[in-house]
Every structure is written in C-alpha cells, then in structure tokens.
Amino acid sequence: MLLMFEDQHKEHLSFLTQVSPDVVKEFCRISMEFIRKGTNPKIFQGAAQKLNVDVDTVHHGVEGLMYLLTESSKLMLNEIDFQDSIMTLGFDEDTRQTLLEIYLQNRREIRTILSEMTMDLPHYHNLEWRFDVQLASRSLRRQTTPTVLFKLHTEDSGVKDTTILQTDPVNLLHLTKVLDEALQEMKSPYCRRIVRNIK
Amino acid sequence: MDLSERGLTAGKLVDMKWKLGVAVCSDECKSLNSPFVAMTLKVADASGKISTHTFELTIPQFQNFSEQMKDMAARMEMI
C-alpha cells in the first residue's frame, strides 16, 4: 500500500528537499515532540530565523512531516512501502534514509498515541465494596438483611465518574459465577485459536 | 389551587424513606462494625420533576439531625 500525497502536501514537503539531512533530522525531532505534546508556535520562529526562511514555510514543513509520520504509522507501512511512498517527493538518498530510520524508531510510539484517540466508552477504574446488615427501616422493624454496597469508579476519556450500586449476597454470587464463566470462555479452544492468530 | 403553591418555592418533599443498618466490613477494613442511618428524599421541583437524593448519616450525625427536627417541630407549635 502506498501513501498518496495531495499537491498541497508535496508543496509543503518540498521545502525539506532543499535542506541538509541534519536539518531534516532536527525537523523530525520537532515533529515527534509536537505529536507527543501538541504544537508550540514559538519553535517555528527560532527555526525560521536560523534557516533564513518564512515562519509559514517552517510551519508547513513540520506539519507535512507530522502528517507523513502519522499516516504511515496509522497504516503500519512496511519499509519498502514507506520508501516507495516518499520516492515521489524528491528527497535525496541521505534524507530518505534518515526519514526511514525515524519512521521505524517512532512508529510504535505514534501508534500508541493514536490508539488513545479512539472512541472510548466508560471503562473500569476501581471498585470499592462494603458489606452491611440492615436492621430496620421505615416500613419494617427488627430485621436482619445482609446487603453489599458497591462504589464503581469508571473513567471515560480522562473523565472519572462514580456509581453507587447495591446487591444482596445471592445476586453477588450469581454475578461472580457469570463473570467467572466469561473468563473461562477465554480458555475454550475457539478463543485460543483466535488469540493465537492475533499474536 | 393554594396561592402558596404558585409562588416561588424551593421544591416540595414528596417522599422520605429511611433505614438503619450496620456496616460489617469493606474492602478497606475487615471489621468495621459501624452503625449508620441511610435516608432517601424525593423532591419535586416547581416544574414537577422528581429528583431523588440518597445519603447516609453516622449515629452522632443522625442524633444532631433529629434534635434539629425536634427543635423545628417545637417552633412550629409556637406559630
């Protein structure tokens, strides 16, 4: 699979064809920092002054690099595909080698960052429980009813939430039995085949 | 309709339930043995929407609460 670049991308990256491989390495390092932490326009100013070019050109160059790296990591391009894709951009041999190295070093990290941006449902964070005995209520006195109180902490894209739930011991036993059965499903031959194929 | 119901209110109490229990143990403390009172208040706001509030009180808190209620009841008698 090859990456297709639009003309605007090619134009942005054409600036990088005119500079030395060291500068390209520096730009790659800046792009990785931006992918990790977000953009910082002040860095463009410094780089633009050092290289004697427009701030906009530097800005577009870094953005073009970021796009190249994230798209290649997203599609998990292998070496040959990556090299074929950047062939059309007009880089010289050294620059292409540098880009390939940076891609291979960082693609795992970029994929981790990208995977955190996927759609998220509230997921488990922590569970606290408490075992009570109810002795009386407004409607019935002199009783001994055991209950279990849960505080379920969930997290949804960084936002934490708590839910309070109540159950009686019989239901709790049933809950644990059902969850246990779900875990046992993992050990069935069908699931084992799938897991083996994923790994 | 009573005029006081059409004016500005902070919501009306629709239902109140309580229960008394003893917390025997929890995941943080194997032998708690602390009694508590749990109350559920159902409140209807001016538009009729019912919201439920559940909270727990320890015995000292509950004693404080009931004393204040008795105080209020006594004042109401005077009015």
UniProtKB/TrEMBL annotation, chain A:
Signal peptide positions (record): none
Top-level taxon in the UniProt lineage: Eukaryota
TM spans (from-to): none
COMM domain mapped to chain residues: 123-190
Matching Pfam families: COMM_domain, COMM_HN
CDD domains: Commd2 (cd04750)
Protein name: COMM domain-containing protein
Source organism of the structure: Magallana gigas (Pacific oyster)
UniProtKB/TrEMBL annotation, chain B:
Pfam families (alphabetical): COMM_domain
Organism: Magallana gigas
InterPro entries given in the database record: COMM, COMMD4/6/7/8
Family: Belongs to the COMM domain-containing protein 6 family.
Molecular function as annotated in GO: NF-kappaB binding
Domain of life of the source: Eukaryota
Function in brief: Scaffold protein in the commander complex that is essential for endosomal recycling of transmembrane cargos; the commander complex is composed of the CCC subcomplex and the retriever subcomplex. May modulate activity of cullin-RING E3 ubiquitin ligase (CRL) complexes. Down-regulates activation of NF-kappa-B. Inhibits TNF-induced NFKB1 activation.
Protein name as annotated: COMM domain-containing protein 6
Residue intervals of the COMM domain: 12-79
Coiled-coil segments: none
